[in-house]
Input
Amino acid sequence: FVLTEDLQRYAAGDAAVGEYVAFLRERVYLSAELVAGRVGEDHPLKAFLTERCGVNALEFAMMQRDAAVPDLVALNHYPHSERYVFSRGEDIADVPAVYVAGEPPPAVGPLLRAASERLRLPLAVGEVHVHAPAPERVRWLAQHVTDVQQLRADGVDVRALGAWAAFGMIDWHSLLRQRARVAEDGIYTFA
Output
């Protein structure tokens, strides 16, 4: 059983969004913890699930009884998986952290290490991709390979790394909702 999820990082741009960012950081692991039956009375998002989502005690008990612990958690990572959240008047704004001066560059290593400590399950990097010229695609993939190799050397159970779209994609920019014939290279470049 492989559970796939986006591996995200959230940075708070100001104190006004601190509580919301703490919630988002917890939510990163919620799907794996729900499926594995790990959401009990002491879970940080229990109140959110009951009050906001309407999950009742019977449903929690059924999720724990019918838990299906994943054999592998495959975490996807893209440059926009790391977010910078800030207040904008009464609103909350969210932009890719890669565009914010002073934010660390996206890196899967620290995120995988944190996921391993939290989930205590075998991990994989499910999808690695960046829509960019060939040298940047190579750099992005190589960075992920290096991070995974270092984690494995440190004893973190990372079992695989998958490149998303080895041979490219057509119209993925719109999640296949538009026929624009926009070609996006994968590992190999379209000729």
Notes: The first strand starts at residue 2 and ends at 6. Strands lie at 2-6, 9-12, 72-77, 82-88, 91-96, 123-128, 158-163, 169-170, 183-184. Residues 134-153 form the longest helix (20 residues). The two ends are 37 Å apart (CA to CA).
